[in-house]
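Hi everyone,

Forwarding the result from last night's run.
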Amino acid sequence: MAGAFADALFCTAATAVAVMQWLILRSTWRGMHRGIARGNTVREWIFAIGPAVALAVLLVFTWRAMHPATISVDAVAPSGPRA
């Protein structure tokens, strides 16, 4: 179980990642609307959104690794008739 310092550090890092990814997406959008029209805008969006989605998934797995389930049952139910 993670402590309060680890939770604060994770939240700070997650916020920094979210802000930076938002700035990247905003920059991509502005660049496509102000720049010369090119035919590879779909590829630009894929390369801008792909890392954002990958980082979001990584943050979810990191949070789950920091806070594992408190109840885990590995027992097998007895077989046979119940009285």
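The chain has one domain: 4-66.

Cheers,
N.
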